[in-house]
Amino acid sequence: MPEGDTVWNTARVLHRALADARLTGSDFRVPQLATTDLTGWTVRESASRGKHLLLRLAAPDAAHWTLHSHLRMDGAWRAYAPGERWNGRPAHLIRVVLRSPGAVAVGYHLHELALVPTAEEDGLVGHLGPDLLGPDWDAAEAVRRLGADPERTIGEALLDQRALAGVGNLYKCEVLFLRGVSPWTPVGAVSDLTGLVTLAQRLLAANRGRWTQSSTGSLHRGQTSYVYGRRAQPCRRCGTAIRKQELGERVTYWCPVCQPERPDAPPAG
Questions:
Q1: CA gyration radius, the chain
Q2: Closest Cα to residue 100, out of 10, 11, 39, 37?
Q3: Which residues contact 70 (CB under 8 A, 6 or more apart)?
Q4: At 190, is the secondary structure helix, strand, or coil?
Q5: Are 147 and 193 in contact (CB under 8 A)?
Q6: CB proximity list for 230: less than 8 A, separation 6 or greater
Q7: Which of 55-59, 104-108, 118-122, 249-253 has the lowest mean pLDDT?
Q8: Could you give the residue numbers annotated as active site?
Q9: DSSP 112
């Protein structure tokens, strides 16, 4: 699942494959960029901002541009050696191909694909909160943004990228379990928001550089999460069956004993 650490890893893959390379060809398969040709452009760097990926380029006239993409739930970038078979996803999902002398980068099922002057990046990502894996990470600012809507459930608030950038459904569920907080608790009733966001940052940072996401410390199949994806399985702490319920537009997983429910929480499914 593309969360902040997955996008960070993807940015590193593209940086290693393309940084400082002059593109020998490009192929955009989205209407808004169908006629765009990046041949002769130089890749300056690949970076991430929360769940957004920013490929920064220099045009032949030295102007700086950014190719922005969002992975959402199903997008992916893959880097291949020239002549290597592209086996990352079905061909009809390809949205962009970037060719260089040493690598070919293929973007599958990308969303919000746009090419903008680098100076205008803020128009695409300026609304985001502090990036949990970025150099500007600021726990105090993340807490301030979360606390701006004290009646909102903490489960929904943690997914709001305007508060802190990079947390997805997996980390939301795992952080709340580890802190013993019910997903339906109002933000204003969470006693230690700083501890919550600090733990979220530590979990993402711990998984940075690897593709297996783990909050338990184990990388073995079936042992990487406490509650996420474990509906009806026993809690690793108390043995109670893990529950699953819709919360906002997403589902959440939690332990009703380790994360006591509020009286007005919806009935468990």
A1: 20
A2: 39
A3: 51, 52, 53, 110, 111, 112
A4: coil
A5: yes
A6: 242, 253
A7: 249-253
A8: 2-3, 51, 250
A9: E
Distances in whole angstroms, Cα of residue 56 to Cα of each of 13, 111, 255: 14, 17, 43
User: Is 183 in contact with 151 (CB distance < 8 Å)?
Assistant: no
Q: Which H or E element spans position 202?
A: helix 193-207
Query: Which pLDDT tens digit goes with each residue over 139-177?
Result: 999 999 999 999 999 999 999 999 999 999 999 999 999
Helix (H) or strand (E) holding 204: helix 193-207
DSSP class of residue 62? S
Q: What confidence category does residue 73 fall into, taking pLDDT thresholds of 50, 70 and 90?
A: confident
- Rounded distance between C-alpha atoms, residue 188 and residue 153, angstroms: 9
Exposed, middle or buried, 35 (CB in 10 Å: 0-12/13-18/19+)?
Answer: exposed
Q: 68: part of which helix (H) or strand (E)?
A: strand 64-70
What is the predicted pLDDT for the residue at 1? 56
Decide: helix, strand or coil at residue 91: helix
Contact in structure between 21 and 15 (CB atoms under 8 Å): no
